[in-house]
Amino acid sequence: MTAFHASPVVASIFSLIAIASLLLAFVMLGSRWMRHYLMAFAAQSWLIAILSASVGYIDRYPELYVIAILTALFRGLLLPYLLLRIVRRMNVEREIVPVLQPSSSLVIGAISVVFALAVAEHIGTSLDLSSKVVILALTVMLSMKLIGYLMLAARHEAVSQVLGLLVLENGIFLGTQILVPGMPMLLELVILFDLLIVVVCFGVLVRYLMGQVGSTSTLHLRRLVG
């Protein structure tokens, strides 16, 4: 696998893309504006597409070129476009009542990265993995998962929550591209199309919330109980 026997140049490229993707997750975590979320998610998805193409070229997995193209089209263009249409139609520009302020979210996100690094190093020690890029890939993957969960917990707008799910999934996808680039293409295609279904379902949910309670905040979902 590329990550386990990567040359210094390859490791540097993978590390740079992984760190940039993590920083974009922090952009989403520290902002209230929906457009910032969407722009950061689109940029993050394009970076993952570049990573897939790089792994495909370096490790001679031609099927990863297809995954890179589909990732760029679906995650980098189609999904942000669909979410932007939802934002414009529902006139939801920013998160109104977050559970945590952006500064507090960033602090918790930073703590999550430290925790993820400790877990990744422990896994690396347990499995006798000495490659720094492997530890970094595990750290970024776990960090983005934790940040995605934090966005789900700390944001009430439906669009913010679906972006939390997408960030979480981006973290998993980024990690697999570095650690297991030979993952069957059919499985990766299923994941890509699942994301499209998730966004469509959230679009239906947002329209229902606007029609029934006049808001896109998921806090109003408790009115459906009973």
TrEMBL record:
Subcellular location: Cell membrane
InterPro entries hit by this protein: HyfE-like
Protein species of origin: Acidiphilium iwatense
Topology class, membrane: Multi-pass membrane protein
Name under which the protein is recorded: Hydrogenase
Listed transmembrane segments: 6-30, 37-58, 64-84, 105-123, 129-150, 162-180, 186-210
Transmembrane found in the keyword field: yes
Superkingdom of source: Bacteria
Keyword Metal-binding tagged: no
Keywords associated with the record: Cell membrane, Membrane, Transmembrane, Transmembrane helix
